[in-house]
Design goal:
Layout: H1 4-12, H2 23-28, H3 32-45, H4 50-76, H5 82-101, H6 104-109, H7 117-141, H8 144-160, H9 167-178, E1 180-188, H10 198-202, E2 209-213, E3 224-235, E4 239-257, E5 263-293, E6 299-306, E7 309-320, H11 327-332, H12 342-365
């Protein structure tokens, strides 16, 4: 079950309907709630909109009746989420009331919209107990996925009623049991000082996942060991290529009178030979990653990760008339040969390695 907060967010933004779906279309499809909100929204900007007025007048009673019937039928059933569904239903009715009262056009159609504040308060009390009991049931199953579900149930219980029974304590206990604990070890097996992977590793920490350095003692033993070994850095020699292009262009050099007495342009063809140069320097940083199960030392993941860098530079020279040069050639002849610094290549390789390391580990731990 998604948390109740998420459901509230969906509820609060539910009136933003795709522009191509009108209130009339929603009404026709039996989406009375959406039809009401769409028509109220239209009447907020156009208080005399006839179509929206007609839709609201027809959809409002149908929407209230449909929501209320769903609530009552659910309460009479064995649905394990009947009171949580009732809360959502009563909140929808109250939300409609709030929307109508903030729309002058809608108030002209529905002058006294219904509310369910008392019913909502009572349903929240029952929904808190319902969510709490469901959390207890999941806790008794004693698996990590069930502990995670229990956490959200206890959180819902506390959201419905602050401090309901031991919901906060049980939520803390469920989170503790659901959390995967990983001890992280970092080794440098090279001659390079690359810094540390710890910021990248620490950024992976989230709800239900705790990764700490092996030297930092946790309250309980880890369930997994994560070892990252920096194995080295390599920078390759530059490689270059060149190509030649002959270019020609007609340019205006002056004017003269033609046979008809009118002025004509004097054109001249200018030429040049352009030599294009392309230089490439590659580098890479390397590491290995091993994730093992702490209970039996089995390997859960083994990866080789790198941080490749591909530095390139283009420039050109020419012989002949500079006026023949246009576009790319004209730009490249303004550039000179260049080379990257060893430090820049190394730092970029380390940044790329950290980025790839973080992404690979994020992908692996997404299953947890």
């Amino acid at each position: 079950m998604k948390t109740f907060i998420r459901m509230l967010l969906l509820l609060s933004t539910g009136f933003v309907i795709d522009a191509c779906v009108s209130g009339k279309t929603a009404l026709k499809h039996g989406d009375y709630y959406d039809a009401v909100l769409e028509s109220v929204h239209r009447l907020r900007t156009s208080t005399t909109n006839k179509k929206a007025t007609a839709v609201l007048a027809q959809a409002y009673p149908l929407s209230i009746d449909y929501i209320e019937s769903g609530i009552q039928n659910g309460i009479k059933s064995d649905d394990p989420k009947k009171w949580r569904n009732a809360v959502l239903g009563y909140q929808k009715i109250n939300f409609i009331n709030d929307q109508i009262k903030t729309s002058l056009g809608a108030m002209k159609v529905i002058s006294n919209p219904q509310t369910r504040y008392n019913e909502l308060a009572s349903a929240k009390e029952k929904a808190a107990g319902e969510a709490y009991n469901e959390g207890i049931n999941f806790m008794m199953k004693a698996t990590r996925p069930d502990y995670k579900q229990a956490y959200y149930d206890f959180k819902d219980a506390n959201d419905f009623k602050q401090g309901y029974m031991e919901s906060i304590e049980m939520m803390t206990q469920a989170e503790f049991k659901a959390t995967l604990r990983v001890a992280f070890e970092e080794i440098n097996s090279s001659r390079f000082n690359y810094g540390s992977f710890q910021p990248t590793i620490s950024s992976l920490n989230r709800l239900f996942l705790s990764i700490k350095p092996m030297a930092q003692k946790d309250t309980v033993p880890p369930q997994q060991y994560l070892r990252v070994v920096f194995t080295g850095f390599q920078q390759n020699r530059p490689s270059s290529s060149r190509s030649t292009e002959n270019v020609a262009r007609q340019i205006k050099t002056g004017e003269q009178k033609g046979p008809d007495g009118k002025m004509q342009d004097i054109m001249q063809t200018v030429t040049a030979q352009v030599v294009y140069f392309h230089k490439t320097v590659t580098a890479d940083a390397y590491s290995t990653v091993t994730v093992t199960d702490a209970s039996n030392n089995s390997v859960l993941q083994s990866l080789n990760i790198s941080g490749p860098v591909n530095w390139t530079h283009d420039w050109a020279t020419y012989q002949g008339d500079v006026r023949a040069l246009t576009g790319n050639a004209a730009n490249l002849v303004q550039r000179k040969e260049a080379s990257p610094s060893d430090e820049d290549l190394f730092n970029q390789a380390i940044r790329n390695l950290n980025s790839n390391l973080g992404q690979q580990l994020k992908t692996f731990y997404s299953q947890y």
